[in-house]
Specification:
The protein has 231 residues and is mainly alpha-helical. Helix 3 packs antiparallel against helix 7, helix 5 packs across helix 6 and helix 5 runs antiparallel to helix 7. The longest helix is centred in the middle third of the chain and has 56 residues.
C-alpha cells in the first residue's frame, strides 16, 4: 500500500523582540527622572503636573527599586549557595547510607521482620522528606534495637558509626532548614522587587509619553533617554 510522506514541520521558538531587562529599565528610569529637572525640560512638563515634589517622589521610587533589586540578587545568591550545600551534604549522607543499607540487606536477607523494620523491602526514596525519614528510621532502629545492632556489628556498622550518622543527619536537617529560609527570603525579595517595578513602570511610561507629546522632535529629550532624529 502506497503511503504519502508527510512533510517535516519544525516549529521555531518565538523569540522575544526588543526584550529589555529589569536592570536596563532601571537605568532608563534613573536617567529620565534624574534629568527631569533640567531647565530645557522641567518647565514644559510642569504644565501637566510634573512638579519638583512629584519628580522627587519618582526619584525616590527609582531608588527604592534599585535597593529591592540588590536585595533580591543577594537573597537569590544566598539561596543558591544553601541549596548547593544541602545537595552536597545529602549526597555524602546518602553514599554512606547506601553502603550500610546494602550490607544490611545481605545480613538480614532471611529476617523478614528486620527487613520490614529497616524498610529494606522497599525501594529507596528520592524526594528529600521521604528519604530523610527512611534514613533516620534506619539508624534509629540500629541504635535502639540491640538484636539488630549486634548483627550490624558483624559488617562494621558499629554503635559509633551509627551515632556519627545520626549526628550528621541532624546537621543535614539544620542545613535543609537554612535552605528553606533562604528560599523564603528570595521569594519575598522577588515579590517586593516586582511590586515596586509594576508600580513605577506605568508612572515612567506616562512621563515619557507626555514628554514626546509636549516636546516633539526636541533634542532636549535625549537627556531623558528619548531618541530624537537629527534634523
Amino acid at each position: 500500500m502506497e503511503t504519502l510522506e508527510q512533510p517535516l514541520i519544525i516549529k521555531k521558538k518565538k523569540v522575544r523582540k526588543n526584550y529589555v531587562s529589569l536592570t536596563s529599565w532601571l537605568e532608563k528610569m534613573r536617567l529620565a527622572f534624574a534629568n527631569a529637572m533640567l531647565s530645557s525640560i522641567f518647565p514644559t512638563l510642569e504644565t501637566v503636573g510634573y512638579t519638583e515634589a512629584r519628580l522627587l517622589d519618582l526619584r525616590q521610587k527609582v531608588s527604592d527599586l534599585e535597593q529591592y533589586i540588590g536585595e533580591h540578587q543577594t537573597a537569590h545568591a544566598n539561596k543558591r549557595g544553601e541549596t548547593d550545600q544541602s545537595k552536597k551534604d545529602m549526597k555524602a549522607r546518602n553514599t554512606v547510607y547506601s553502603k550500610h543499607r546494602a550490607m544490611a540487606k545481605l545480613i538480614f536477607a532471611e529476617n523478614a521482620l528486620a527487613c520490614s523494620v529497616l524498610n529494606l523491602h522497599v525501594a529507596k526514596k528520592k524526594d528529600y522528606s521521604n528519604w530523610f525519614q527512611d534514613v533516620s528510621n534506619f539508624y534509629a532502629q540500629l541504635a535502639l534495637n540491640t538484636d539488630l545492632a549486634a548483627e550490624a556489628e558483624r559488617v562494621s556498622i558499629t554503635k559509633a558509626v551509627v551515632e556519627t550518622q545520626r549526628q550528621q543527619l541532624a546537621l543535614l536537617q539544620e542545613q535543609k532548614n537554612k535552605q528553606r529560609r533562604a528560599a523564603a527570603e528570595a521569594k519575598q525579595t522577588l515579590e517586593r522587587r516586582n511590586k515596586a517595578f509594576d508600580q513605577l513602570y506605568p508612572l515612567y511610561s506616562e512621563y515619557i509619553k507626555y514628554a514626546k507629546i509636549l516636546m516633539p522632535n526636541d533634542q532636549a529629550l535625549e537627556a531623558i533617554g528619548i531618541k530624537v532624529k537629527s534634523r
